[in-house]
Description:
Largest sheet: 7 strands, mixed
Structural class: alpha/beta
Strand order of the largest sheet: 8-7-16-17-18-15-19
Number of strands: 20
Radius of gyration: 22 Å
CATH topology of the largest domain: FAD/NAD(P)-binding domain
Bound molecules: flavin-adenine dinucleotide
CATH superfamily of the largest domain: FAD/NAD(P)-binding domain
Mean pLDDT: 93
Helix content: 25-40%
Strand content: 15-25%
Distance between the termini: 15 Å
Amino acid sequence: xxxxxxxxxxxxxxxxxxxxxxxxxxxxxxxxxxxxxxxxxxxxxxxxxxxxxxxxxxxxxxxxxxxxxxxxxxxxxxxxxxxxxxxxxxxxxxxxxxxxxxxxxxxxxxxxxxxxxxxxxxxxxxxxxxxxxxxxxxxxxxxxxxxxxxxxxxxxxxxxxxxxxxxxxxxxxxxxxxxxxxxxxxxxxxxxxxxxxxxxxxxxxxxxxxxxxxxxxxxxxxxxxxxxxxxxxxxxxxxxxxxxxxxxxxxxxxxxxxxxxxxxxxxxxxxxxxxxxxxxxxxxxxxxxxxxxxxxxxxxxxxxxxxxxxxxxxxxxxxxxxxxxxxxxxxxxxxxxxxxxxxxxxxxxxxxxxxxxxxxxxxxxxxxxxxxxxxxxxxxxxxxxxxxxxxxxxxxxxxxxxxxxxxxxxxxxxxxxxxxxxxxxxxxxxxxxxxxxxxxxxxxxxx
Length: 447
Ligand SMILES: Cc1cc2nc3c(=O)[nH]c(=O)nc-3n(C[C@H](O)[C@H](O)[C@H](O)COP(=O)(O)OP(=O)(O)OC[C@H]3O[C@@H](n4cnc5c(N)ncnc54)[C@H](O)[C@@H]3O)c2cc1C
């Protein structure tokens, strides 16, 4: 850079922190504003009586190449722990493991006729391979033409839809197959299947919240500071007003790394056409019920997935002592239970006590061995009204439009998982790409 530029990043989730690190690496003076009292956004870890509780993201996948490289750069790779990829799907009172994927051939979860129908899906993955790039979701726009449910009913089978595809969509993203584009399914399947060593899952010794904490360590992050409005200076540059009052901050560049729903309030001057993109992004919802226990829970699986045919309320559960020995004190455990997206939408008004009662009653009905209540030492409920951005039919075309048109005024860039992909990897890639665009618009480097 010829002279140091100033940048404000709004939001200290992993997208905002990735952008801030990139801007600083290019010589900019960066200030990150975060409304919450801690960094991380939807990647935060609380510790309750020595037990880690993941308030959002719980695992990293082996196809998160940029995230894993960043973990190396940050010097925390020694804290990366492999999670046993032993998750199972419930059908008629029995859990069926699908991982490693070779088990699919043997599983009694679906019949042989349905397994054979999967070859159509594998052939489509091969055919569309060139469109399926995790670093460029917009490239998949040509196959953003059908929902997972329409696609599965037309080309696979009802059983595959309800017992193989729907449970992970609901249990990991809190989505429904009706509101998920088949383009997203293909992208994730290709990424998962393309690793020569198979799909592996990881966490960090101190929980996934360790990642944003390490990213923020040497950045100027102002916690508990909510940006209220971004205004343009007539002569160029921007001013950010703080919601709680105080001196506004001026900068050459602004990276807005909030969820999409916050953008219209921060920049109403963007105009109707641009604002429609942000307003059009819908988020799934969930509630997490974390129960700490004084003894161990059954440890045959890390993740339990509940198909909607089996439960109208629960989407998934994870057993934390199976995930990682450092997640709980020795001999103890935590069960993390997640409500399904549609149930959470319907039960938004329900009080905490009723939600907890409902979730535990459902768990006892479906999987009584995992009932943590008799040995519970704590119980905490957390609501996530904006859990994961939906990648419904039309979203990929929206991303393509975002990339093709002048969505970003010079010096402003947007970042977040709704642009880069609905997981940590997508959020980080979107943050780094946003920093590159903001710099390029001001004449520094390539977008
Ligand atoms: C329950 C759940 C489970 C998940 N599981 C996984 C998983 O296992 N693996 C995985 O890879 N991903 C998972 N995810 C997704 C992952 O957590 C997100 O994709 C990622 O963390 C999003 O990062 P982000 O920076 O885009 O957004 P966020 O993390 O939401 O960051 C936005 C930040 O902006 C701040 N902010 C908003 N408005 C303002 C304002 N006006 N001023 C200042 N600050 C503001 C917010 O407080 C927040 O910190 C999960 C998410 C949830 C909710």
